[in-house]
Amino acid sequence: MQTPYRGGMIFIAGALVAGALTIGCGKKDQAKATPEVAVVILQPERVAITSELPGRTSAYLVAEVHPQVNGIVQQRLFTEGADVKAGAVLYQIDPRPYQAAYDTAAAALARAEANLPAMRKRAERFKELLTVNAVGQQDYEDAAAAFKQAEAEVQALKAGAESARINLGYTRITAPISGRIGKSSVTPGALAAAYQGPPFTTIQQLDQVYVDSPQSSATLLGIQRNMAANRIKGSADSARVKLLLEDGTPYPQSGLLKFSDVTVDPSTGSQLLRMVFPNPHHILLPGMYVRAIVEEGVAEHAILVPQQGVTRDPKGNAIAMVVDGSDKVEQRTLRVDRAIGSKWLVLEGLNAGDRVILEGLQKVRPGVAVKVVPFGAKPAPAAAK
Predict the structure, then answer these.
(1) What angle do CA 197, 202, 205 make, to 5 degrees?
(2) Any idea what DSSP says for residue 380?
(3) Engineered SS bond to 93: which of 24, 71, 224, 370, CB 3.0-4.6 Å?
């Protein structure tokens, strides 16, 4: 009865020893396994540095048409929405009262000018007679004063006639600039009040248009720092600009950055950027929402890292895992500027030749030795059991 019991104990003990050996071997093999990671080797690249800014279009020139004299509108001489030339007659105000005023002023001027030669000759004759004591000093002075008064009256009447002529011309309301004219706010028969009320119409020049966009002052400071560090070559004040329309289609004409405002809006912390674009086919209309792509310059030796290789630490700092010369993992803290396509533009933390881990990040930690394979390479075939 005791022999089977002892045999069973021996069998159990042997099984336990075999299991322990198997587990020990497995742990030993697992300890010997080196994690495999896929890396990309960074190389400097030449990239164009751009910023995409929202903006609104506005007309290059805008003129509001107001009457400059009072009267009744007799005619409207343009088609709403048409293109007009500078100097074209838009409205005709009843000219008869102003024509009469001009005729009266012109007649008074003619009468005064007709009397002027006689007054001049009288003053000259009295001056000659004064030399031979034929007239008294007082008589000569009276004649000379009368002549000067007549000259002054002629000048005053000339000014009055010119004013009447100008007012008569104002009865023909003309276009101050060339451009596209909008709707008319008055019709024939309406009363025109000089310099008062809403404009009769508005003319906008659309052969060129402005695009106004607010830009963060912090962004502008970053551009200036990049240029000072020679990371960007170019000038932000002479940059060329491309445009995307509201539906996302690119505008065929490129524009120029004209200026940035010298004042920062304290409520938004932004500066206004003004760009000008040619608009020969009048595709751009005032008030349209567009996106301007400003070419800030060119980074000759930019370091770009794929976005999948960059993570964030608990403090929000950008970090990347790099394989050093000993094939060990090293953690780097980065300073990134912006996304360019599917990559980050790195300002600090990475250099040319660094091997950045893109795949296998979950299997490694700083200081661990790894097996390096190029990113995108085909995986090695599984080992036979």
Answers:
(1) 155
(2) P
(3) 71
Those residues with Cβ within 8 angstroms of residue 106's Cβ, 6 or more apart along the chain or in another chain: 161, 164
Beta-strand pair 255-260/289-306: unpaired
Residue 115 in tokens: 């009397």
Residue position matching structure tokens 């031979």: 132
Helices and strands (H, E) in the chain, number of each type: 4, 19
Tokens of 299: 């980074």
Indicate the Cα dihedral angle 27, 28, 29, 32, nearest 10°. 120
Mean pLDDT rounded to a whole number for the chain: 84
Taking Cα atoms as reference points, which of 203, 200, 181 lies closest to residue 191? 200
Asked whether the beta carbons of 213 and 273 are under 8 A apart, the reply is yes
pLDDT above 90 for 337: no
Read off the pTM.
0.64
Which two structure tokens, joined as six digits, stand for 188? 């024939």
Q: Report yes or no: 92 and 169 within 8 Å, Cβ to Cβ.
A: no
Indicate if the pLDDT at residue 26 is higher than 90. Answer: no
Sign of the four-CA dihedral 201, 205, 211, 214: negative
Distance CA 194, CA 212 (A): 33
Look-up of token digits 């009368």: 146
Is the Cβ–Cβ distance between 277 and 244 less than 8 Å?
Answer: no
* Residue 379 predicted with pLDDT over 70: no
- The more confident residue out of 23 and 350 is 350
Q: What share of the chain is helix, strand, coil (3-state, %, to 5)?
A: 30, 35, 30
Could you tell me where the beta strands, DSSP code E, fall in the chain? 36-41, 45-65, 71-76, 83-84, 89-93, 172-174, 179-181, 191-192, 201-216, 240-244, 255-260, 270-278, 289-306, 311-312, 318-323, 329-340, 343-348, 355-359, 371-374
Instruction: Report yes or no: 227 and 297 within 8 Å, Cβ to Cβ.
Output: yes
Domains and CATH numbers, the chain: 36-47+301-374 (2.40.420.20), 50-59+204-300 (2.40.30.170), 67-93+171-198 (2.40.50.100), 96-169 (1.10.287)
